[in-house]
Specification:
This protein is of the alpha/beta class and 274 residues long. It has 4 helices and 13 strands. The protein has one domain. Strand 2 and strand 3 form a beta hairpin.
């Protein structure tokens, strides 16, 4: 599969944290670097790696099994599990199926990839940040592989191994699964503790990779995870790709097919968390 490389305008290049490789059929690739910044994250060794935090509405907490979702005091099956693989993987190239460690990205990504390499506190901080970002949706975030019989899961491999030749400098590789046609996509995030970006930025990369696997497209929004933010927002923003996903919902944005509301798109796919 041939790769395409189209540089974005200078203003965007000046602010984009790293290269993000996407499906060549969209004819867009983001390529840039930034200087090191101080990571504002704080560590929380007590954070849960398997369930989203209880909401702040006063609803009683659940005593759920792993990979279940707590909604309004009741344990339910989530719409999807987001498996943050921090321990390494041997991946194959073929039909996308996270449960088989098989992806449909690029042949160069087949092979063995190291884990994230973080200590427990850093690992929990990453997971806690990602969990918070996905709180509005019916998902469970985990760093443990879901067993057979669990809800379908996406897998983001967070690896300290550098990207393969030809992909130097990329932060993540994830295709936009328009309409969420593949329930168990895989993606890759290239990050390691102590690099120039920090844990909070790593979390943004992971969440954006998962969102791509659910059909979200890039924007240039400063406050949205589809662009440069750290959360999914309801505001509509212009899609920064040449072709919009045919399965997305322009009706959320005054019937404009080149606008996207990341929050509403993901709620349409995953459901709003109760």
């Amino acid at each position: 599969m041939a790769r395409s490389t189209i540089l974005l305008p200078t203003l965007l290049l000046a602010t984009l944290p790293a290269c993000v490789e996407i499906d060549p059929s969209y004819a867009d690739s983001y390529t840039t670097t930034i200087s090191a910044t101080t990571d504002p994250s704080t560590t929380d060794p007590t954070a849960s790696s398997t369930t989203a935090p209880d909401d702040s509405s006063g609803t009683p907490a659940c005593d759920c099994e792993p990979f279940q979702l707590c909604e309004a005091g009741t344990c339910t099956a989530p719409s999807r599990i987001l498996f943050v693989n921090l321990d390494g993987v041997t991946a194959t190239f073929g039909a996308a199926n996270a449960s088989q460690d098989s992806h449909n990205l690029y042949p160069e990504l087949a092979g063995t990839w190291d884990g994230y390499g973080a200590d427990d506190a850093t690992r929990q901080t990453l997971l806690s940040t990602i969990t918070t970002q996905w709180e509005p949706f019916r998902v469970v975030v985990t760093d443990q592989r879901p067993p057979a019989g669990s809800a379908p899961y996406l897998q983001a491999v967070v690896t300290a191994t550098p990207p393969p030749a030809g992909f130097e400098g990329v932060a993540s590789i994830a295709f936009p699964d328009c309409g969420d046609a593949i329930p168990q996509d895989m993606s890759f995030v290239f990050a390691q503790p102590g690099d120039a970006f920090g844990v909070s930025t790593h979390a943004n990369w992971v969440s954006l990779a998962f969102a791509r696997g659910l059909g979200l497209q890039y924007t240039n929004a400063a406050d949205d995870l589809s662009g440069f933010g750290d959360r999914f927002v309801e505001t509509c923003y212009p899609i920064a790709e040449a072709t919009p996903c045919a399965a997305h919902h322009p009706e959320y944005c005054n019937d404009d097919p080149m606008q996207q509301s990341s929050l509403l798109e993901l709620q349409a796919i995953l459901g709003a968390r109760g």
